[in-house]
Design a protein that fits this description.
The structure is a single chain. With 201 residues, the protein is of the alpha+beta class. The chain is built from 8 helices and 6 strands, in the order ααααβαβαββαβαβ. Strands 1-6-2-3-4-5 form a 6-stranded antiparallel sheet, with helices on both faces.
Length: 201
């Protein structure tokens, strides 16, 4: 896992967490499946999200555009939110070879875990995303904001795991309760096999 994380895209701008995270999970899934047709540069993903520096991207639009792109290549984007989104769901997604790592949204006060001087108050309402890598005794994750966290004078190491209760708290205190997104391979359709199903040469 350490080797995988080393190759992950760190977000180059403070408002680029979701698009950077999406690039990470697409790259890993492409490598796992031995394909390059679902790999996209960060700049192309940003186009799908209509990203504007300082204003972020449009998550709903980006996911819709990416799904249109991926479906033509045998994959799709899945999202879920609400009480049906559980830690058990995240674990099942991670353990499936047909699915990418899941991305979840967390509330702004998550940053208090990384920087004790940070306080999510006032108009700071920007949510953040994390890539969940494992759900065991704790929830293990990658934070695409890592580069910016390490620039802080009081952070020498970025946290990459949280207790389940803490992660649930940050995952629930968002605009969409327990929002999660992942990529998965589509099952082959019978019609894709053509006449072979009828035993014809």
């Amino acid at each position: 896992m350490e080797e995988v994380v080393k190759k992950f895209q760190r977000q180059p701008e403070p408002d680029m967490c979701e698009t950077a995270a999406m690039k990470c999970i697409l790259d890993v899934l492409a490598g796992r499946h031995g394909t390059t047709n679902i790999k996209l540069s960060l700049s192309k993903i940003n186009v799908h999200y209509s990203y504007r520096r300082g204003m972020g991207g449009d998550s709903e639009l980006g996911i819709s555009n990416l799904n249109d792109y991926l479906v033509k290549r045998g994959y799709r984007v899945q999202t879920r939110s609400g009480k049906g989104s559980t830690l058990e769901l995240l674990k099942a997604i991670i353990e499936s070879e047909e699915r990418s790592f899941p991305i979840i949204s967390v509330s702004p006060d998550y940053f208090e875990e990384q920087n004790r001087r940070y306080r999510a108050t006032g108009e700071c309402t920007w949510e953040h995303v994390l890539i969940v890598l494992g759900v065991n005794d704790e929830v293990e994750f990658f934070d695409p904001y890592e580069k910016f966290l390490l620039k802080s004078s009081n952070i020498s190491e970025v946290r990459n795991s949280l207790s389940k209760p803490k992660m649930l708290r940050y995952w629930e205190r968002t605009s969409q309760l327990r929002w999660v997104v992942w990529i998965e391979k589509l099952s082959p359709r019978l019609e894709d096999f053509g006449d072979d199903l009828n035993g014809e040469d």
